[in-house]
């Protein structure tokens, strides 16, 4: 890539993107637009290329995602992302866990795929409420919602994966007014 933007070779970019969203067409579209002057430029291209995802691409991407409430058993960046994202919404509430398990089963029976939601930043009760709401959607509307959730997840993962190569971000001050703010 260029000497002023994101410093990542094509193989690393493709491998990282696939960990963010397992859709080869999307990876090809994004990688084909490299080099990127900044993380913002990469994110803009990634969002555009994932809008919309086809139903087949949604199903392809979901193959890498565990059920909500279940830890990813895999290895690699995609599995690590899933574990971290779900951990942020963990709950010790046994009734809530049972309701998520029941909701996941109902969702899979209705739509033929695992329920997917951007878990990062959401509590388990919020996730359950969204699961229950989405169970009432028509299939064509739900697949579009899943595509949007996959895109949101990818856009959260990309900066985590590539921040170390973002020359623009690394050259910027942290934005703290004083040293105590960083602690």
Write the layout of secondary structure elements.
Blueprint (H helix, E strand, L loop, with lengths): L9 H11 L3 H8 L7 H11 L5 H8 L14 H11 L6 H18 L12 H11 L4 H24 L4 H4 L13
Helix pairs in contact: 1-2, 1-5, 1-8, 2-3, 3-8, 4-8, 6-7
Gist of the model:
With 183 residues, the chain is mostly helical.
Could you characterize the architecture of this molecule?
- By secondary structure, this protein is mainly α.
- It has one domain: UraD-like (Orthogonal Bundle).
- 58% of the residues lie in helices and 0% in strands.
- The protein contains nine helices and no strands.
- It has helices spanning 10-20, 24-31, 39-49, 55-62, 77-87, 94-111, 124-134, 139-162, 167-170.
- Helix 1 crosses helix 2 (24-31), helix 1 packs parallel to helix 5 (77-87) and helix 3 (39-49) packs antiparallel against helix 8.
- The radius of gyration is 18 Å and the shape is globular.
Helix tally?
A: 9
State the separation between the terminal residues, measured CA to CA. 34 Å
In terms of quaternary structure, what is this? Answer: single chain
Tell me the helix content.
Answer: 55-70%
Order of helices and strands: HHHHHHHHH
Number of domains: 1
Major sheet = none
Structural class designation: mainly alpha
DSSP, total strands = 0
Q: Approximately what portion of the residues adopt beta-strand conformation?
A: under 5%
Overall CATH architecture: Orthogonal Bundle
CATH class: Mainly Alpha
Low-confidence stretches: 167-183
CATH H-level name... which superfamily? Answer: Oxo-4-hydroxy-4-carboxy-5-ureidoimidazoline decarboxylase
General shape: globular
Question: From the alpha-carbon coordinates, what is the Rg to the nearest angstrom?
Answer: 18 Å
């Amino acid at each position: 890539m260029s000497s002023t933007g994101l410093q990542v070779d094509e193989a690393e970019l493709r491998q990282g993107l696939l960990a963010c969203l397992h859709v080869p067409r999307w990876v090809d579209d994004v990688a084909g637009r490299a080099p990127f002057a900044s993380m913002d430029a990469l994110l803009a291209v990634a969002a555009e290329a994932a809008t919309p995802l086809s139903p087949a691409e949604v199903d392809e991407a979901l193959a890498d995602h565990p059920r909500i409430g279940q830890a990813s058993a895999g290895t690699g960046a995609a599995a690590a992302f899933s574990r971290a994202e779900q951990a942020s919404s963990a709950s010790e509430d046994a009734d809530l866990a049972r309701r998520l398990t029941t909701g996941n089963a109902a969702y899979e029976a209705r739509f033929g795929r695992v329920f997917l939601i951007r878990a990062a930043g959401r509590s388990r009760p919020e996730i359950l409420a969204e699961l229950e709401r989405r169970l009432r959607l028509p299939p064509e509307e739900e697949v579009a919602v899943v595509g949007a959730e996959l895109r949101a997840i990818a856009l959260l993962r990309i900066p985590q994966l590539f921040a170390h190569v973002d020359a623009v971000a690394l050259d910027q001050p942290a934005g703290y007014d004083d040293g105590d703010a960083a602690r």
